[in-house]
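A reminder from the course coordinator: this example appears on the midterm review sheet, so study it carefully.

Given structure:
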């Protein structure tokens, strides 16, 4: 069974940075995609970024606008999300995903 554990969330001011980490454990041999999505209170869940085992360019949502970078360490079954120039609208619970699985989430709060 695959388990995902996120870390790295926190509270920052507008313009600040955070790096989210996700550790995958268990049988990850069938991983096709790892990434992040988020959900703010009262809003729908939205994809943030994704990276594909088979290669190719990572996916970024339009609202990322070059501020975030997704990366992966296959040897450690880790995926990261470096977030810079954070905005208040980036506030929300960020979830790691592996294929269709997700973790418990880590809270990101950006205040002005």
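Designed residues:
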């Amino acid at each position: 069974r695959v388990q995902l554990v996120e870390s790295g969330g926190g509270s920052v001011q507008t313009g600040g940075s955070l790096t989210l980490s996700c550790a995958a454990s268990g049988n990850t041999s069938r991983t096709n995609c790892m990434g992040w999505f988020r959900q703010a209170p009262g809003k729908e869940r939205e994809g943030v970024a994704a990276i594909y085992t088979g290669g190719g360019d990572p996916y970024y949502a339009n609202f990322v606008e070059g501020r975030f970078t997704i990366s992966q360490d296959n040897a450690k079954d880790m995926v990261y999300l470096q977030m810079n120039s954070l905005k208040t609208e980036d506030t929300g619970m960020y979830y790691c995903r592996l294929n269709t699985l997700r973790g418990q989430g880590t809270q990101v709060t950006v205040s002005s």
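DSSP finds no helices and eleven strands in the chain. The chain has a mean pLDDT of 95.
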